[in-house]
Specification:
Bound molecules: calcium ion
CATH topology: paralog of FGE (formylglycine-generating enzyme)
Number of strands: 13
Shape: globular
Distance between the termini: 34 Å
Radius of gyration: 19 Å
Helix content: 10-25%
Oligomer: single chain
Structural class: alpha+beta
CATH class: Alpha Beta
CATH architecture: Alpha-Beta Complex
CATH superfamily: paralog of FGE (formylglycine-generating enzyme)
Strand content: 15-25%
Order of helices and strands: HEEEEEHEEHHEEEEEHE
Number of helices: 5
Largest sheet: 4 strands, mixed
């Protein structure tokens, strides 16, 4: 149902979706306790190389298509799962953004008694006439929604150990990566890895969306946002690895959940980005929301459909403020091959370290 008179909760959702924050505040120290030998477990070593990044036929922010060289790096085979994230939380006591009570400055204009922990949950608007130009009609701020309770109080993850963790902000993802002795992939690394060695293909598996009628990613079938026919087998997030891997052996580089990248977002970055190992602009700019600082997300999600969002293509880009969490957003980690070659975080060499997760 489209709300004509915004409720405080609706305003909170809008504020989170349109958040301009991202400034760091208090800092929280956590200990890196993932044993070093485990760091490259379930990771793939992606050989360095050169590829065509972006698309000359896609949205403006994917242009121009340009040559980029990346050094070799390790990439998680799959999105970080609930059981992996639970281990991080158990080891560190980390509290995610969605589990914290927002500060008044985070959500200006929201009454103090409405500043409650929660996150954004996809909620079909309940009408066939929903406008695709009103995303707030299907995004609802749900108090109590977080990675442990993806749909809010009463929901849980006991049967979702192998599902990607969701409702994690960029800050949460970065904190996990530090604990694990890893980092978020750069946007260039992410796209290079997603293409799996294919050259300028529309999809991570080739040039056809559904070769032989087969669904190769968890996206949306049906009339968005009201009718999900789940022809690919999944109405929401799927267990990681439910679809075939790409050419590098990476799963779910298209669809399932959005994945945070390290970079700040600017739509014009490709016009002047470095040709070797670009790591994003120094500043963020989103013409849709000037003043907001946003990080890049890639890969699309179970909510993506060509009717609204064709972002399951490897060239497509998305931007979100780093303190926002949603039910269709997760991440995976990377490690520079040069770092493991040098032996610094290689097997057995590091058992603990202290990292700072900025919040
Ligand atoms: Ca699906």
């Amino acid at each position: 149902m489209i709300q004509r008179t915004p409720s405080p909760i609706f305003i909170a959702a809008a504020a989170l979706l349109l958040s301009s924050s991202g400034d760091v505040g208090a800092s929280e120290k956590i200990s890196a306790t993932l044993p070093a030998p485990e760091r490259t477990r379930e990771m793939v070593l992606i050989p360095g190389g050169t590829f065509w990044m972006g698309s000359d036929t896609g949205p403006a922010d994917t242009r121009p298509q340009h040559r980029v060289k990346v050094d070799g790096f390790w990439m998680d085979q799959h999105e970080v799962t609930n059981e992996q994230f639970a281990r991080f939380v158990e080891s560190t006591g980390y509290v995610t953004t969605a589990e914290r009570t927002p500060a008044p400055d985070d959500l200006p204009g929201i009454p103090a008694d409405q500043l409650v922990p929660g996150s954004l949950v996809f909620t079909p608007p309940g009408t066939k006439d929903a406008s695709l130009h009103q995303p707030l009609s299907w995004w609802q701020f749900v108090p109590g929604a977080n990675w442990r309770h993806p749909e809010g109080p009463g929901s849980g993850i006991d049967d979702r150990a192998k599902h990607p963790v969701v409702h994690v902000s960029w800050d949460d993802a970065a904190a996990y990566c530090k604990w694990a002795g890893k980092r978020l992939p750069t946007e260039a690394e992410w796209e290079y890895a997603a293409r799996g060695g294919l050259d300028r293909k529309e999809y991570v598996w080739g040039g056809e969306q559904e070769p032989q009628g087969k669904h190769l990613a968890n996206i949306w079938q049906g009339r968005f946002p009201e009718q999900n026919t789940k022809e690919d087998g999944f109405i929401a997030a799927a267990p990681v690895g439910s679809f075939q891997a790409n050419g590098y052996g990476l799963y779910d580089m298209a669809g399932n959940v959005w994945e945070w990248c390290a970079d700040w977002y600017r739509p014009d970055y490709y016009a002047h980005s470095p040709a070797t190992d670009p790591s994003g602009p120094d500043t963020s700019y989103d013409p849709d929301e000037p003043g907001a600082k946003k990080r890049v997300e890639r890969g699309g999600s179970f909510l993506c459909t060509d009717q609204y969002c064709g972002s399951f293509r490897p060239a497509r880009r998305m931007k979100t403020s780093p303190d926002t969490s949603l039910c269709h957003t997760g991440f995976r980690c990377a490690i520079s091959a040069a770092v493991t070659n040098a032996g610094a975080p290689a097997a057995g060499s590091v058992t603990s370290a202290e990292v700072t997760a900025s919040k």
